[in-house]
Every structure is written in structure tokens, then in C-alpha cells.
Amino acid sequence: MQAVFYFTFTAALVLLGGVVPGAAQNERPRARDLGISIGVLKPGPENAITDVAGVLVGHKTIIKGDNIRTGVTAILPHDGNLFRRKVPAAIFVGNGFGKLVGSTQVNELGEIETPILLTSTLAVPKTADFLMDYMLGLPGNENVRSINPVVAETNDGGLNDIRGRHITRDDVFEAIKNAKSGSVEEGSVGAGTGTIAFGWKGGIGTSSRKLPANLGGYSLGVLVQTNFGGILSVDGVPVGKELGQYYLKNIVGKGSTSVRSFDPSADGSIIIVIATDAPLGSRQLSRIAARSMAGLARTGSSMTNGSGDYAIAFSTANQINSDEDVREIKVLGNNAMSPLFEAVIEATEEAIINSLLKATTVTANGRTAEAIPIETVKAILRKYGRLK
């Protein structure tokens, strides 16, 4: 009875405007609420990127009329002036069909000096400009003559008037100033407001892992913006095939010669943001970022020609004082990296699944992206022995 009520409530809201408010979104479960425990490592207390001490996340969700569904998500490595206290960082490119402002300087110098912002594809230049306004206006930055904003994107044009580029300066400032620790709002919010994943409504998802004390006790968290396709797998279960919605469904075994005749397409993008308190340098962070693609693959991503698959990794340890010319840092040895590789793979996989489970149905721009049906997914997982 509860499931029927939820569906009816959601459907009514879609008819009234296509957006389910935050209260309904919060009613949708995360993976662990369903009894899904991905991997072998334990999550942190919030099972979120904010389990890495000091990390903050903020959203600005933009919903206007019947065709604007977009937003900004801000990830802050700490609450101070990032230009004055930079963090070690690296960016890994799985497939480079995307627009990631600031990536070359991050990989050249091995550090990030602004909040990381996620948004809509065509809004990246404006968002980067507004982020520079924010950074230049911070006390202590009065004489700064160069800022490297880090802004990433996925294409929300299916549900959003993407050509309108509806991100404003106030939106960017609000996302940054709203950033907080603790639980992270997921699903159809912020930069995930208009995104679609595996043919269902996608969005923002997060997860974390805590290493055992004898492995260092480090925390690692992941936040994703999902907007891609493939053949959905949930904890190894072929949910996409069971639901009858997956990449190449209308081609394989049917003799079609058109590579564009399938629905849904697997084209799209994902941004994976990784935070850890492990003492790492940029080279090691690049290795961690690369392993996140294994977590992406576990969910069934095809990483197609038209997909932008990016990972941004940073460490909150060994922060870099911009006024220091010489400094000594300590980093983990290579033999200590493997548990962190496992952590990022598991957290990436679970963050993606959370983004789908938490997302609500959105109708806009002449299209409806349905929320993945929770009760049906539960039945499929029971069928394969993943749930009691």
C-alpha cells in the first residue's frame, strides 16, 4: 500500500509541474536503506563525501517554468580561502567528451585553489567567471592576478533549456555559501536537477569508505553527477536488462544497422569528485582517480564515444600555503595505496546507485525522466539473492 501511495503522489506532482519537492525526494531510499551493501569496506557515519573532515557540499537548484531544470553543486575541500590554502589534487580523464575548466593547471601543478563546481555544459564559462568573482572578492586575495577555477559539467539538455544558460552569479555564490558538512542532499538537486542516467532520472549521489585502523584509518568519499547510460547493474545484478531498458536493446539480435536507433542512448557524462584525508601527493591522487573508473564500470557504464567521464581527486592533508616557497610533506608509500583503490571503487559504485535511487521523476522541456521504480528494483534484487 505504501508503494502505491508513493507512486500516486509522485505522478500527481509530475502532472502539476514535473518536479517532486525535497520532502518526497527524501522519502526515496539509498542503497543501504534497501539492504544493499556494496563491497567489503565500511562507510563513514554519513556515507557521504563529507565524511572526510572539513569537506563541504552545497547545492543551488534552479527550477523555472516548464523548461528550466538545472543548477550548481559546489564541493569545498575546506572552509578557508582555497587560494591561500590549496589542496593536493589530480584529474583523470576516462573519455574526454566534455568541458572541464582548469584541468591542465591542476595536473601541471598538482593542486586545486578554488571550490569545485559542477553545472550544465553550456553554463561552464559563465560559472567559471562567477567563481573567479567569488575568489577575487575573498579577503586576502586583493592582489591576486591569476585564478584557476575548476568547473565540470554534464549535459542536462534533455530536461533543461540548456541554450538559455540560466546560471547567474547569485546562483554560484549561493551554492558555495550554502556548502555544509554532514548529510548531503542527493538525487534531482543542484547540478543533477536535469540529468538522466541509464534512461532513468539521474542526479547527485555520494558515498564513503573508512579504512580499518590497521590500514591507516583513512576516510575516502565520492560525490557524482550522473548523466550517462549503458546496461545498469546494481551490486552485480543486471537490473537494466531485467527492467528492459538498456544500451543496444533495439539493435542486438534484431539485424539493425543503425547505431543511433536504440533508446536510451548510452551517451552522456559523469563527474566523479573524490576526497580523502590520506596524506597523498598529486601523482598518488591521479592513481586513485583512475581507479574510480572501475567503480563506474561496475554499474554498467559503456563509456561511449559521446560520454565525458572525469574524476577529480583531492586530499585534505598536506595543504599548501601559497606564501611558502619551501615545504616538506609526507605521503603514503605505494604499497599503502591498494586499500584506497578498493575504497574509491566501492564508493564510486555506491554513489552512482544512490544518485539513481534518490532521484525523483522530472518533467520538463517536453520530456519526462522517470525515477527508477524502487519496488521493482527490490523485487529484482530479491530474485538474484541480494535482498532477503
Largest sheet: 7 strands, mixed
Label the overall shape: globular
Which structural class do the helices and strands define? Answer: alpha+beta
Order of helices and strands: HHEEEHEEHEHEEEEHEHEEHEEH
Multimer state: single chain
Annotation, overall tally of beta strands: 15
CATH topology: L-amino peptidase D-ALA esterase/amidase
Cα distance spanning the termini = 20 Å
Tally of helical runs:
9
**Uncertain regions: pLDDT < 50 for 5+ in a row?**
1-17, 256-263
CATH architecture: 4-Layer Sandwich
Radius of gyration: 20 Å
Name of the CATH superfamily: L-amino peptidase D-ALA esterase/amidase
Calculate the mean pLDDT score and round it: 91
Give the strand content. Answer: 15-25%
Helix content: 25-40%
Short description:
The protein is α+β, with helices and mostly antiparallel strands and 388 residues long. The chain has nine helices and 15 strands. Strands 3, 4, 9, 10, 11, 12 and 13 form a seven-stranded mixed β-sheet that branches.
Write the layout of secondary structure elements.
Blueprint: H1 2-16, H2 22-27, E1 56-64, E2 68-76, E3 85-96, H3 103-109, E4 111-112, E5 116-120, H4 124-136, E6 150-154, H5 169-177, E7 196-197, E8 200-201, E9 204-210, E10 219-227, H6 239-243, E11 268-276, H7 282-298, E12 307-315, E13 320-321, H8 338-358, E14 362-364, E15 367-369, H9 374-383
Parallel strand pairs: 5-6, 11-12
Antiparallel strand pairs: 1-2, 2-5, 3-4, 3-12, 3-13, 7-8, 9-10, 10-11, 14-15
Helix pairs in contact: 7-8
